[in-house]
């Protein structure tokens, strides 16, 4: 099939966020703040920077806060305007005007593959991106833009890979790879993916290239997902469907791995979430200098009373 221009992004956001209980008992994990924005806004902004302003969120029960955040709040806007607080008004309007947002419920929690399959009606017969909300990519990086370019140029499926320490690979999907050839030959950040293994033991891992939460997919993935049986955890795994595409290039042109060596924050993990806040806050124009000064004092003082 001929390549189409990508315009659509899908963000699965139906998870319960159990690793952050009780904070996520009444608040979606995607709405946990990272400095001055909820985590989900960083992900939508990344999609928009890559030219994907048509965004579909796959949600679940108790996720109304996601829709409310990206909707207008006329009372708040009027209050800020009456006070002349135009800076805050501008920040509020940024989230409202950010993208053309749509929502669909996943229904049964049958895994990431099932969540992606729920996007078919909206996406149709076009390539599209999938962005997982737990992975925040530093806004100075251009991972998604690179993946979109690779997909469009080669009419392939593109997945993001990141080198991890061998002992960490058991926490990720792992890629079986070989050198790239054809139209991409000689491009050092690209590899041909010939297979995927979900969370292998370190001693059995075929590489140290872990799959991270960015995918640019051809629409053939929907047909494969419909035939994908529940796998690990009794869920329909996106990794299993991608494995089919990786092993048979005739289905959708094969799978290309884009190796990312920039800054990524795993906000689905408590430590990763805190690290994201600290690193992004140290780059924030309003917080940077004071925070860096305080951190230096905190470390020099043996981490203060809290660390004793």
From TrEMBL:
CDD domains: UGPase_prokaryotic. Residues 8-280 form the Nucleotidyl transferase domain. It comes from the Bacteria. The keyword Nucleotidyltransferase applies. SUPFAM superfamilies: Nucleotide-diphospho-sugar transferases. Keywords: Nucleotidyltransferase, Transferase. InterPro entries: GalU_uridylyltTrfase_bac/arc, NTP_transferase_dom, Nucleotide-diphossugar_trans. GO terms for molecular function: UTP:glucose-1-phosphate uridylyltransferase activity. It catalyses: alpha-D-glucose 1-phosphate + UTP + H(+) = UDP-alpha-D-glucose + diphosphate. Its EC number is 2.7.7.9. Belongs to the UDPGP type 2 family. This is UTP--glucose-1-phosphate uridylyltransferase. It comes from Pseudoclavibacter albus.
